[in-house]
Amino acid sequence: MVNLCTLAKEISGTIEYLYPKTVASIVEYDSTQTVEEKIQAIDQAIASISANTSGTYYTKSEVDDLIYTKISLSAAINIGTSASGSAGTCYAEKGSSVSVTVKWTCSRSIGSAIPKTVTIDGVSQTINSNTGTATFNNVSANKTYAVVATDQKNTVSANCSVSFVNRVFYGVAAEATFNNTFFNSLDSAVKSSRGTTFSGNASTGQYFWFCIPATYGTPKFTWNGSSSGGFILAGTGTYTNGSESTTYNVYRSTNPALGSNSIAVS
Q1: Cα–Cα–Cα angle for 175, 240, 94, nearest 5°?
Q2: pLDDT tens string 166-183
Q3: What is the pTM of this model?
Q4: How far is CA 244 from CA 91, 94, 164, 166, 182, in A?
Q5: By CB neighbour count within 10 A (0-12 exposed, 13-18 middle, 19+ buried), where does 96 fall?
Q6: CB 168 within 8 A of CB 189
């Protein structure tokens, strides 16, 4: 027997592959028939087919409709030119100019996940698989990237963003003037909030320090997982990065030479 899904017929000027709806729609032939007789029997069966969903056979396009699932899209972003974006938002320091890489990924439960088209902010992207990247240079302000993908029937979208925020400074140092030299002598991280955990070893004449933009609010300090407090607001200072200058609140441990400690800030 020959399954008709391997055969085709011209329907309305188009060659359609035909798929039987049931096993009853399979062409049978006698094993004693010659090759020519088998072909003739199959041709006669095909000639009698009227392909439609209410009949005995599905066309290829009808099968595609039956198994269609909408494509899904996700977008991630990271600082730099690598393709390892894994978050919907990344952070860069205010006053800097950076490169960001947007990574898009399409998925689908049934069938190919390769999209027909992909655009980022309206610009068409090259499509080689179900995922791709695009790098944008000289970014210096908050920016949201709109990613749009299409499949054979639908359009899906996803967003990712770069946000420019301040640096948080922390660590161990002696008393000093609160300027760029002092701030840069401490450890730091680009953060959108004050929450941080840091550790250090303060010897004679050294204090623990924690410095945040005034807009980040009032911190709470927890020492070694138990005791709280132990810091005073020692003053304010201005930190400049590029064209961006920010006023920082500078917190200092009440006492110097406190040895090794781990401090959680909330």
Answers
A1: 125
A2: 999 999 999 999 999 999
A3: 0.75
A4: 16, 6, 11, 10, 17
A5: middle
A6: yes
